[in-house]
What does this fold into?
Amino acid sequence: MKAIIYSIFTIVLLAFLPSCGTDTANTNVSADTDSKPTLSDPNLNKAKLPKALTAKLNAMKQNPKDHNRNAQTINEIAQHYVEHKQTKKAIDILKTGAIFHDKGNMHNKNLVLLAETLKGDEAFKQDYINYIQSLQIGTPTMEGLSTYASDVPSTEPKIAKKIENIQNNLTVSSTGRLDLDKVNEFVNIVELFVIANPSNEKSPAYLKLAAEVVNSVKVYPRAIQFYDWILTRFPNSQQAAQALFMKGFTLDDGMKNKQAAKPVYEEFLKKYPKNDFADDTQFLLKNISKTDEEIIKQFDDKK
It folds into this structure.
């Protein structure tokens, strides 16, 4: 029953994903290994940090709204990772800082550090180019941007065109199955674009598509992050209501965390009582403690 309701909300995704299957090529998208870090992600604790930085990381988790201090902590931890050639960890925590602590007084320096970190590792060359192109649109006055821009080849397609091309080629043509390398490529380019363009009208739409893509490959923690990103940064966007519903549904049906889903459903009904999906939300909330089999039996008994 709930799977049927979910299909309503993925209609945009299904329009360009002919199959729900996935190509199991090498990929970073994995339900177990690479959900994008959040401030409470235990994966960040697995990195070897000095005790002083570990203490600051823990303080950051306990005080998520202290943006100035947390942006500073992000900068210090990222620099530590860069110095120890842990580029991926540095990039991940800088992305986290850009998403959650863009109001911190170190934010612009962290944007620059992200550019330097991407530039400094050949493995992230395309991400670097994508990021610089995104900054040229959303943050054109950033320190040193003109120098970074000279690294972008004159033949490089526009960032919007690249996003569109990746979106339209998320499946393997011979099988119709999701290409997980393309999924990762799409998620990465969307993240970098939105980080650089927090006020762009395209940003919430891109985040919504990214959430749908990772939800389709069952990387639910990453999907939750994208929904939260929409709700935090774009609360008045057209995508906000659906993001709130899908956050609840993902917690409920995907992650089987009904306790966490319940207040999200309640918040949805409070904020959007006349939304087209309010009735569906009321149904899910009313039956949140029941199994699909019990819900089906409930309908059968009414026949």
Summary: Confidence is low (pLDDT under 50) at residues 1-20, 30-46. Residues 265 and 281 are 6 Å apart (CA to CA). DSSP finds 16 helices and two strands in the chain.
